[in-house]
Design brief:
about 210 residues, about 45% helix
Length: about 210
Amino acid sequence: MIEQNQTSSPITTLNGTDYMSDEKARLIPVAAIKPVDLLRDETVTGIANKVLALNSVMKAEKETLFELVYDFLELSANEYDTKYGGKKGNVSLPSFDGRYKVQIAMSDKVVFDERLQIAKNLIDECIGEWSAGSATEIMTLVNDAFQVDKEGQVSTYRVLGLRRHDFDHPKWLKAMEAISDAMQVTSTTEYIRVYERDEHGKYQQIPLDFSKV
């Protein structure tokens, strides 16, 4: 039997017998588990523990990075006998030689309420009143904008992109108004990104994503 260690799933001992819990929370005697299954468990659990530890370090470092930036912003403001005010975020700080750039940006999480469907109905009525030639192309555009993803959410970018079209039909204008009214900002996320200038003079984001390293 493969020896268990701290990188393996927890073992429960009952009446002198060691058990491990499976995915259905059933207790299986360790002696009855195939060596390859034990090795798989040890490998996966060990990797997960390393990633969790790395995740914890990254969270702490992220907080430190934000503190460094905002401490600098306050220091910079003090040079002019004032405080750094306004909405936090959306600031870009270059190094003296321009090799690096630190950027903080804010991103709003936008959802739409029931008025989005009202807007869709108005647009459908509007398209129905247009000539067949122009309506087909616009209908394709609209259906694409209102298409939902696997979570049942529409693309905020695509829906709001409809407002760029300057149609003067009353129902279209009413639909654009309904889209604006349907928008609800549920949360705001703050991002910090660090860039390095490449040999072509373009800034490339320094990746902190395993898939991009």
